[in-house]
Amino acid sequence: MAPDGIGAMLRGLRETAGLTREEQALALQEAQGGKWFDPENLKRWETERRLPTPVWHELLAAVHGCTVEEIVRAVAASRRWRRLQRRGGAEGEEGAAVKRRQFLGVAAGATGAVALPGMAEARAGINAGLSDSDSGDLDYLAGAFERHRGGYRGRPPGAVLAQMKGDLELLRDVLARPLRASARADLARTAAGITGLVAIIQHDRGDQRDSIGWFATAEQAARESGDRHMLAWGLARHAMVPLNYGAPQAAADLAIRARAEAGRAPSASAALAAAVTARALASTGDHQGALRAVADARSIAERLDTLQAADTWFGYPLQKHHVHLSQAFTLMGRTREARAEQEAALALTRSPSVMTRALLAMDAATCLKTDGDAFAAADKAADVWQRLPQAFRDGLIRTRADALHQTLVGAAHNRLGEALAE
Q1: Do residues 387 and 422 lie in contact, with contact meaning Cβ atoms separated by under 8 Å?
Q2: What are the backbone angles phi and psi of residue 126, rounded to the nearest 5°?
Q3: Engineering a disulfide at 331: which of 55, 216, 282, 411 sits with its beta carbon 3.0 to 4.6 angstroms away?
Q4: How far apart are CA 68 and CA 393, in angstroms?
Q5: pLDDT digits (tens, 9 = 90+) for 353-409
Q6: Radius of gyration (Cα) for the chain, nearest Å?
């Protein structure tokens, strides 16, 4: 299957929405006025045994929440991938390597930071290069990985993504160059880290589909590198996409997989996986399971060494630990424990951490609502929103504010709604 083709796109959108294939088929049936739609047809498209013809493009776009242009591009990517695979089979391994380099040339679109044109094509190129790249000078990319892994440091997500654009293009090119075989694992690990960071940023910006695609690339790279902790980290981070955008059971499944990959030794990836599991299970209503996961996360966090507890996107510092547990307890309605975690997190949060502070404040507002003071909850959330720089008023923070808004009624609902409409 094409890494950025119609099959991966349709399946990813359906799974993010938490739907089975039969449920999605029913939605397609309802969208065409009750006319029968065979779930097997959807299965053929998702597995790319067949590609949807133009007569289906508008229906697929409407039901899956995307544009017709995105459907057309994904189908074109699948057709291009098929051509490359057919030619690769006929010409042998050497020919396949040439085709991958040709595919990288086709996928050479730049990755922008605002409208982000070409992001999907860049990811497709990285995917194509991973399995057959024997080459590349990793020194600069390894350094770039270290620079980017430090987090936002008060910068808006779009600005960080803009700074990564050149490194993504270089990564794509390095994957296509000849290199000694001994460098392959290092190259794949670096690719897993950098593409995983892009996935996090796209998640925070609210671009769920692109985030899921980049996480799939990061998982492919991590598996090729053989680094189980990198794989566990990627799966745990991936789980936060469905968790934060309305599919908690899918999030729990991913987080539990991540926890299994991380193993029993204390590590940042194991702690993160346990904490995300707690949040996901709390969101599904499994509070006992969530509390067990909280205990697991606490036990691991207490045993992390300085490197594993570093304040980076790949570490699990105490501040991050308390932020996760704040959300878990907030979702369980255990406001006393949630407030304690919020206070602990804020005491450890550096002043430029705009996003972290805003998310903790939204948790605090939700706790006020849970304790029965709806207007105070609306007032606090509205105040946070109005103080927020424009560059942060989308994606994750917006989703958290909207979730609270939907639980409010009357004057409280109107108060927060007016602020969000500004």
Answers
A1: no
A2: -65, -45
A3: 282
A4: 27
A5: 788 899 999 999 999 999 999 999 999 999 999 998 887 787 788 888 999 999 999
A6: 22
